[in-house]
Amino acid sequence: MKILHLRLKSKKMSTAKKNDSVKVHYTGKLTDGKVFDSSVGKDPLQFTVGAGQMIAGFDAAVDGMALNDKKTVNIPAAEAYGESNPDLIQQVAKTNLPADMNPKVGDSLVASGPDGRQTRVTVTEVSENEVTIDANHELAGKELVFEIELVEIA
Questions:
Q1: What's the CATH fold of domain 21-82+140-153?
Q2: What is the DSSP string of the chain?
Q3: Topology (CATH level 3) of domain 86-134
Q4: pTM of the complete model
Q5: In the chain, which residues have pLDDT < 50?
């Protein structure tokens, strides 16, 4: 009788780590459940773990995930788009706007700074003589909830 020795190779579970190129599907929500972005039905999002291409909390959530893992993470504002900066909220006299502009709350405008750099701003208030604009990222100051699925590690 022959004795057959078999070596079983342990299947190492591949996990995402710093400098790996990964692809994920995700859905980003506010804490009230409102979806602000999603890759569902589109190509997955590709980025390099730890390269600073993503908000810090998202990057940290993917680091260590195994291939095909799914998770839901809450990311505080400080690890997302930061806290809202009051210095980025300003009142602008309507006389400084183009004559044909009729701004409304929620409008997205492009403002030019003294150095010529352009910044996207959101109109947050309109009065008879002034418009309040906010240059903070629209998700600044908000806790975010992401559902993440790791679909590829390269």
A1: Chitinase A; domain 3 (3.10.50)
A2: -PPPP-PPPP-PPPB--TT-EEEEEEEEEETTS-EEEE-TTSPPEEEETTSSSS-HHHHHHHTTPBTT-EEEEEE-GGGTT----GGGEEEEEGGGS-TT----TT-EEEEE-TTS-EEEEEEEEE-SSEEEEE-S-TTTT--EEEEEEEEEE-
A3: Thrombin, subunit H (2.40.10)
A4: 0.79
A5: 8-11
